[in-house]
C-alpha cells in the first residue's frame, strides 16, 4: 500500500513537472532595469520614388516603444532628409559607450535594394542587399555619386560591433531586408522569396540538414549577435500598405504586436513573440492579395528573424 | 576506506558473474514522460531557468552481464527562459532527440510476489534536431545524458512459476540529467521521468 502511494506521488510529481511549462504563462515578477536606447528612422520623401507611410511607421514605433517601457529620453527619431548614411553611422557610434547590459534598438522604414547581376555593368563592386538612406538616391534614382551612400549588411555590422553592448535589436521594414538577418548556426526555413517557393517546417529543415547543422553548432562561438527582425526575405519586396493601414504592412502588424503579441501572457513581448505575431498576420494578409485588385502588383512576402538561442524583451505591457 | 573499493569490485563482478550464469538476453520496450527544469548559460549570457518536458519511446537490450543497451527516441519541448533584469532571455525550442545509452544494471532486489526492484545507472549521448518555437529557425545539437533509474518488474499472473521467460512489465522512475551543447551555450536539464516497461522477449 505504501509502495503504491509512493508510486502515485512520484507519478503526480513527474506529471506536475511535465506540465509546468503551462505555469510560465503567469506574469513574471521581474523589472527590467538596464538602460534601453532606440534609433528610429523613417524615410518617405525620397527624391526618386517617394514612399507614403514610412515616416508614420517611425512615429508609430516611437509611440509603441514609449508605451512599451522605453524611456522617451533615450529614443531618437529622425525622418526623411535627416536620415543620411553619415547620420545613421554617427548615431550608432554615439552609443559606443553605453553599458554592456544596455539594449540598443535600431528601427528603419524606407527603401531597400538588392544588387543582382543586372547591376554588374554600372556598379560592379556592389552585390547583395542594401538599405537606402535619403542621400543614396538623387532625383533620377541611384547613380554613381549616390550609390556609395547605400548601407550594406557588412557596413551596418561593423558599426554595430563598436557598440558598448551586444544586446542589439535591428528592425528593418524595407525590401530585401532579409539579407540583413543572418541565421548564424541555424537555418532559416522561411524562403528568401516566398512567392517563388513555399515555406516549409523548421523541424523538417532541421532533419534535412542535420549533419550541416551539427557542424555549424560545433563551430559557433556562443557570442551575442544582433537579433534582426526583417519585413521581408532577401529576395522579396515589402509594401507600404493601404490607406486603411496608414503604415507599411509589416510595421502595421508589428505595432499591433506591442499590445496583442504577448503570446505567453507573462507581461512582456519579446522579439520572438513580436515576430511570431507579425509573421502570422503578414501571411494572412498575403492570402488576401488575389482578392484586392489595387494590389495586383504586390507579391507575397514573409518577415524573417535571426538571433540564435538568445532573445530580448521588445515591449513591456 | 581502502578495503571498501575491493569489496565493491567483488560484489560488482559477483553480480556480473551471476547474471552471466543465468544467461538471460531480454528485449524490452518502454515509454516515459519527463518533467524537466533546464538551466541555460554561456556565451556572455546570464544563467536562466526554463521549464520543459519530454515524451519518449525506447528499446532496451538486457545482456546476461547486466550491461543494457538502450535506444531512445524522444520529443522534447522547452519553454522560453525566465527574463533577466537586462531584458535578456533564451528562446523556447522543441525537437526530436535520438539517444544511445548504456551502463550497469545492479542485481534485482526481490519484493516477494510483487516482483523485482532493480537499480540501474545509464549514460550516453544524444543528437537532437530542433527548431526555436514560433520561429522558422532550425538547428541541431549534441548532448550527453546520465540516468539513474529505479525499475519495478511486476510478476503478474505467472507469479506461481516465475522464470526468465515470463512476460514482465512494470513502472520505472528515473532522475535523468542532460547536458546540451547548443551553439556555444550550455543547457543542463535535470528532470524526473516516469515510465512503463514491457519485456518483449527473453532468451536463455
Task: Describe the protein in words.
The complex is a heterodimer of chains A (317) and B (204). With 317 residues, chain A is α/β, with parallel strands linked by helices. Chain A has a single domain (32-316), classed as Rossmann fold. Chain A contains eight helices and eleven strands. Chain A has a six-stranded mixed sheet, covered by helices on one side. In chain A, strands 4-5 form a two-stranded antiparallel ribbon. Chain A has a two-stranded antiparallel sheet with strand order 9-11. In chain A, strand 1, helix 2 and strand 2 (75-79) form a beta-alpha-beta unit. The radius of gyration of chain A is 21 Å and the shape is globular. The mean pLDDT of chain A is 88. Chain B is mainly beta. Chain B has one domain (4-203): Beta Barrel (Porin). Chain B contains one helix and 13 strands. The longest helix of chain B is centred in the first third of the chain and has 19 residues, at 4-22. The radius of gyration of chain B is 20 Å and the shape is elongated. The two termini of chain B are 39 Å apart. The chains are: A alpha/beta (317), B mainly beta (204). Chains A and B meet through helix 1, strand 7, helix 5, helix 6 and helix 8 of A and strand 1, strand 6, strand 7, strand 9 and strand 10 of B. Strand 7 of chain A pairs antiparallel with strand 10 of chain B, so a sheet runs across the interface.
List descriptors:
A: 317 residues; alpha/beta; Rossmann fold; six-stranded mixed sheet; two-stranded antiparallel ribbon; 8 helices; 11 strands; B: 204 residues; mainly beta; Porin; twelve-stranded antiparallel sheet; 13 strands
Describe how the helices and strands are arranged.
The complex is a heterodimer of chains A (317) and B (204).
Chain A (H helix, E strand, L loop, with lengths): L1 H17 L17 E7 L11 H14 L7 E5 L5 H9 L9 E7 L2 E4 L12 E4 L21 H8 L6 E7 L13 E2 L13 H7 L1 H10 L7 E4 L18 H12 L7 E3 H17 L16 E2 L4 E7 L1
Parallel strand pairs in A: 1-2, 1-3, 3-6, 6-8
Antiparallel strand pairs in A: 4-5, 8-10, 9-11
Helix pairs in contact in A: 2-7, 7-8
Chain B lengths: L3 H19 L2 E12 L2 E4 L2 E5 L2 E11 L6 E10 L9 E3 L2 E13 L3 E2 L4 E18 L4 E18 L14 E6 L2 E6 L2 E19 L1
Antiparallel strand pairs in B: 1-4, 1-13, 2-3, 2-13, 4-5, 5-7, 7-9, 8-9, 9-10, 10-11, 10-12, 11-13, 12-13
Amino acid at each position: 500500500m505504501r509502495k503504491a502511494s509512493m508510486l502515485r506521488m512520484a507519478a503526480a510529481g513527474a506529471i506536475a513537472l511535465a506540465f509546468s511549462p503551462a505555469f510560465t504563462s503567469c506574469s513574471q515578477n521581474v523589472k527590467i532595469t538596464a538602460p534601453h536606447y532606440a534609433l528610429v528612422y523613417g524615410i518617405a520623401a525620397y527624391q526618386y520614388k517617394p514612399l507614403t507611410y514610412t515616416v508614420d511607421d517611425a512615429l508609430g514605433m516611437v509611440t509603441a516603444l514609449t508605451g512599451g517601457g522605453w524611456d522617451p529620453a533615450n529614443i531618437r527619431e529622425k525622418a526623411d532628409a535627416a536620415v543620411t548614411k553619415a547620420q545613421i553611422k554617427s548615431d550608432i557610434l554615439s552609443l559606443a559607450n553605453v553599458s554592456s547590459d544596455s539594449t540598443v534598438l535600431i528601427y528603419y522604414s524606407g527603401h531597400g535594394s538588392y544588387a543582382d547581376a543586372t547591376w554588374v555593368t554600372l556598379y560592379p563592386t556592389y552585390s547583395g542587399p542594401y538599405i537606402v538612406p535619403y542621400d543614396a538616391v538623387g532625383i533620377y534614382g541611384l547613380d554613381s555619386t549616390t550609390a556609395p551612400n547605400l548601407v550594406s549588411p557588412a557596413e551596418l555590422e561593423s558599426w554595430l560591433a563598436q557598440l558598448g553592448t551586444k544586446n542589439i535589436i535591428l528592425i528593418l521594414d524595407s525590401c530585401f531586408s532579409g539579407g540583413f538577418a543572418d541565421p548564424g548556426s541555424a537555418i532559416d526555413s522561411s524562403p528568401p522569396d516566398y512567392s517563388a517557393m513555399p515555406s516549409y517546417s523548421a523541424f523538417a529543415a532541421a532533419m534535412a540538414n542535420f549533419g550541416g547543422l551539427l557542424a555549424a553548432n560545433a563551430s559557433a562561438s556562443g557570442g551575442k549577435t544582433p537579433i534582426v527582425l526583417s519585413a521581408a526575405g532577401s529576395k522579396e519586396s515589402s509594401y507600404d500598405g493601404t490607406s486603411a493601414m496608414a503604415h507599411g504592412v509589416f510595421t502595421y502588424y508589428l505595432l499591433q504586436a506591442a499590445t496583442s503579441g504577448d503570446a505567453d501572457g507573462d507581461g512582456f513581448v519579446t522579439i520572438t513573440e513580436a515576430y511570431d505575431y507579425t509573421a502570422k498576420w503578414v501571411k494572412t494578409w498575403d492570402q488576401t492579395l488575389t482578392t484586392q485588385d489595387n494590389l495586383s502588383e504586390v507579391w507575397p512576402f514573409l518577415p524573417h528573424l535571426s538571433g540564435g538561442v538568445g532573445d530580448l524583451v521588445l515591449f513591456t505591457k | 576506506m581502502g578495503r571498501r573499493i575491493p569489496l565493491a569490485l567483488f560484489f560488482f563482478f559477483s553480480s556480473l558473474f551471476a547474471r552471466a550464469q543465468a544467461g538471460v538476453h531480454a528485449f524490452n520496450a518502454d515509454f516515459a514522460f519527463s518533467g524537466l527544469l533546464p538551466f541555460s548559460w554561456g556565451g556572455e549570457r546570464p544563467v536562466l531557468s526554463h521549464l520543459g518536458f519530454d515524451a519518449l519511446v525506447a528499446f532496451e537490450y538486457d545482456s546476461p552481464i547486466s550491461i543494457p543497451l538502450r535506444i531512445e527516441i524522444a520529443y522534447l519541448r522547452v519553454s522560453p527562459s525566465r527574463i533577466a533584469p537586462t531584458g535578456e532571455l533564451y528562446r523556447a525550442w522543441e525537437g526530436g532527440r535520438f539517444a544511445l545509452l548504456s551502463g550497469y544494471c545492479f542485481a534485482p532486489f526481490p519484493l516477494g510476489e510483487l516482483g523485482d526492484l532493480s537499480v540501474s545507472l545509464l549514460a550516453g549521448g544524444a543528437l537532437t534536431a530542433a527548431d526555436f518555437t514560433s520561429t522558422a529557425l532550425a538547428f541541431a545539437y549534441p548532448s550527453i545524458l546520465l540516468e539513474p533509474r529505479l525499475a519495478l518488474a511486476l510478476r503478474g499472473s505467472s507469479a506461481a512459476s516465475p522464470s526468465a521467460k515470463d512476460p514482465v512489465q512494470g513502472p520505472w522512475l528515473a532522475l535523468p540529467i542532460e547536458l546540451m551543447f547548443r551553439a556555444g551555450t550550455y543547457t543542463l536539464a535535470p528532470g524526473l521521468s516516469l515510465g512503463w516497461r514491457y519485456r518483449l522477449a527473453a532468451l536463455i
